[in-house]
Each structure stands twice: as C-alpha cells, then as structure tokens.
Amino acid sequence: MKVKLIILISIAAVIMIRDNGHISAYQPLADAVAIKSEGTVSATPGPMLDDFNSGSSVNLWGNISGTLAKSDTTASIVGSYVGDTAAYGNAGHSLQLTYDVNYTDSWATYYTSLGGDSISDYNYLSFWVKGLNGGEYFKIELHHTNFDPTQSVGHNNDYNASVYVTDYLDGGVATAWRKVVIPLDAFANITDRSRIKEIAITFENTQAALNGSPKNSTVYIDNICFGKQFLGFVRIDHFGDKVSKNALGGNCGGASETSPVHGSFSYTNSQYVDYANGLDFHFQDCWDTDTPADHRYYAYASVVGGGDSGSTPQPRNFSAYSNITFSCKSSSANVRCLKMELHCPTYLNNYFHFFKYTFTNTSWTKVTVPLSEFTTKGWAGQGTSITAVNKTNSIGEIVFTRDGWMSRWPGDWDYGVFAGDFYIDEVQFEADGYAPDTTAPAKPGNLAVSGSGNQLTVACTASSRISDATMENVGFEYEDGAIWRAIGCDYNTAGNSYSTTWDVSGLSAGSYKVRAAAMDAAGNVTYSNNVVYKKS
Ligand SMILES: [Ca+2]
Ligand SMILES: [Ca+2]
Ligand SMILES: [Ca+2]
C-alpha cells in the first residue's frame, strides 16, 4: 500500500508576492525598494537568513517574506513580529504565525524568499521554534527556482522538497524554545542547491487530521540560518509524526504478495527508542513453497524524495554516509530474521541490493549496516556489493522485507515461524564515527565591553569552526533584572574573534552583567564569565 498524501502548497508561489500584506505588525521597509529580484543576492550570503529583529517583512538577504492560505476556504494565517519576553532571547523580535486550517484539505503557509541564490556552501538549515500550546505541527519546504506550481495545480512538483518538523525535533514543538537542525540532504527532491527560490513553513489540515496536531494555534520562529558543518547523519525515519511520509520527503508504506495480505504496519506509541513513535512491522501467513509456486513476503518501503507524487524514487547520492543504522526488536525469541534492501532505480529489476541479519533477543538493539555490505544477493559476502558498482550515489528506496523462505526449511533462521512483529525505530544514514554532538563548545574568554557613549562593542574570543567544526555562533547577553536579554549574535565562525554592537541608549543608569554564549549546531552552549558594564 502506498499512502497517497495530498500536497497542498503548490499554488502558493503564484500569489505569494501579492499576499504579503499580513506581515505588517511592525513598520516594514519599503518593499518595492528592498526586494531583490532572483539572482541579485550577493554571491555568498551570510548564514543568517532572518532573525526578525528589524520587524520587517524583508529578510536579511534582502528578500520578501509573506503568508498565504488556500483560497476558497476559511484557512488563515497571520504573521507578525513580537518582542520583549515573547521573542527568542528576550530581545529584538521573533516571527509569530497564527494559523487556522480547520477547513477540510486546507493549508496555510509562510514563506521567505532566498532570491534564487545558492546555499551550496551550507550543509544544514536551523531555526528556533516554540508553540502557544505545544504539539503544533508543520512542514518545512525548500523550493528550487524551477518550482513551477502552474504546471500541476493542486499537486507538488519535483522542485519542492519538504520535511516535517518532528522529523528533526524529537518530541515535537513545545511551549519553550527548541532548536531544529536539518541536514540539507534531507530535502531529497532538490539536488541543485545553487538556485533556491524560498523556504516555506506550511500547516496542513490533512496531516493535522491524521496525527491529531492542532488545526489552529500560534507558533513562534526565530533565527532561520544555514550552517556549514557536515552533521554526519540524515534521517530516513524516526516515525515521530504518525504520518506516512518519511524524513526524506517521500511516501512510505507496506507492500505484499497478492491476497491474502501477508502483513501490515502501524506507528506505535508503545514500542520505540527514545521518542514516540516506532514502526510496528507485522508479518503473517508469510511462507514459501515451490509446488505450487507461492513466494510470500511483506515489505515496508521508504521512498527517497518521491518527486511530484511522493512515490517516485529520486535516486540520491548517500556516499557521504557509510552506514545505515536502525534500532530493532522482535515480538518473540524465534522471530529473528529481517531483510533490508536498498533499491537503486536505474538498476531496478536487475539488482536488489540487500543484506540479511538475525536478531538474537527481544530487547532493543542498534544495528549498524555498512553500505558496503549490501550485495546483489541476500547473503553477506556474496554477490556484488553496492559500493563495488558505485550505486551509493543512486539510492531510491530503503526497504525492510520479511520473506517466506526465511522460515521454510529446517535449519533456516526462523523455521516454521510464519507470523510475528519487528519493531523498528531511528532509521538513518550515518557517516563512520557519527555520534550525536553532546560536547559543548570551549568557554569563551576575553569578554570586554568597549567604546564610549551609547554605541558600544562587546567582544570575546571563542573557538572558530577550524578548531571546533561544530561551532555555529557566539551570542552576547546582558542581565536586565532577572532576565537575560540578547544583545547580538556573531555567526562568523571563521576566526576566534567574535563581537557585536550594543546600543545602550535605552538602558537606565546602573550596573549590568554581560556574558557571551558559544553555541554549536546541536544547540550545546557554554557561557563565558560575566563582566559588568556600568552605565552612568
Ligand atoms: Ca530575533
Ligand atoms: Ca521514534
Ligand atoms: Ca559540539
């Protein structure tokens, strides 16, 4: 079964520019002057696309942002800019999006334009998010400049790539700020990152109906930026959202021999690793005979990218990743054997690249399969490996399969076992040596406030991305009563010097603690010692 999803965003770009009037809570710049046409952004834009601090609908790359909801429905979305303690860092502004997609099949979207510029220098996209109630759910889209919604109104197309927020935010949106970090490889429908039209954030009635997320609420967004670190992993699926879209943007679902059906799948909140949910892969009546020929199987497939329909594999290059990893457990001790397949579309029907494992217990175990061990036959060490035929640059589907022959003969792993369950979670590509980054940056030093009058400079030293490849930025803050407020943030990690300007004209006389915060891509933070600034 392929689950067909309704893709709702496609007509957005046609009317986006006309519909930007919602974003006007703070004085916008004169848009006609500030908007750059596609291709006119400087060759190497800074990593920060928008911190929203200006309260303008023009982002820091000089391009327009706006909102749009599906016409002929009651769907709505209002964007505005909020400050003070509602903003990330308790200063400046954050983007506030209040949406309503209660109307059946409706959607509402916010977009911010990249002007057709390149993000090829970057490896990940990150932003901060919180929700009014928690559990808000949306997708993050990248549109290539070739994205042409007029070609198939009401549908997606191959130049629209998306992931859902839970794909990279385990546990989902909360009422406190959380950081979302998405490797650009996750946007599998787009390989040409040299001409990106826009980023969109889209709320959908259909998906909210599927997983029970709020159809109307408010989310806050801040610091949409790009980063250079190669994160070392890209998720295939962690099953967090209970929607049959994987974390590479494609559809996923079960496949079986002809009736009777030999299995089923569900997303379960009772079997998972770390974060709900997990995949329950159930096979039944799954056996194999030669006379009469009856070769039964059940499979669960994740399509890479999916193209226009979500179901057309977009073969992609995953050679930067050496392994596929996942966690698995089985429903009973005699259910052990599961096959994993990688499908390379140009080789489809000629080669299946697959490997076979056994599971020796019924507790969760992380499995690491080197891509080099996927071969054209089902047994390790046999056939031609996927790396030998250089097909790690052409992976279009990732499939778990239970074959009837696995239980056919005495001596087979699961002889006589025709039904059971595998629980699967946290399926992803990983580079050799990958581990989640839990190491905070080195402590910033030499923090000083300099200058005279009201225009000051706050500076410190901290690791560059040369000495710590995970470095993302150094932020500066001051204490106002019991609240730390952001002064500014320096995203230039090329060297060890970091600084920002500080306009203290609004501060009343007194002493203020100041500190610097070194942050890496994963969101780990180390603070400097405080210094005190005295305003007279
Ligand atoms: Ca901000
Ligand atoms: Ca999970
Ligand atoms: Ca780190």
End-to-end C-alpha gap:
71 Å
Largest sheet at a glance? 6 strands, antiparallel
Structural class comes to: mainly beta
Say which CATH homologous superfamily of the largest domain is assigned.
Galactose-binding lectin
- The Rg value, from CA coordinates, equals 25 Å
User: Which cofactor or ligand species appear?
Assistant: calcium ion
Number of strands: 32
Strand content: 35-45%
Describe the overall structure.
The protein is mainly beta and 536 residues long. The chain folds into three domains: 228 residues, Jelly Rolls (Sandwich); 197 residues, Jelly Rolls, CATH 2.60.120.430; 91 residues, Immunoglobulins (Immunoglobulin-like, Sandwich), CATH 2.60.40.10. 3% of the residues lie in helices and 41% in strands. The chain contains three helices and 32 strands. The strands form seven sheets. Strands 1, 3, 4, 6, 9 and 11 form a six-stranded antiparallel β-sheet that branches. The chain is elongated. It binds calcium ion (3 copies). The site of one calcium ion has 9 residues, from strand 24.
Core attributes:
single chain; about 525 residues; mainly beta; Jelly Rolls; Immunoglobulin-like; six-stranded antiparallel β-sheet; 3 helices; about 5% helix; elongated; disordered N terminus; binds calcium ion
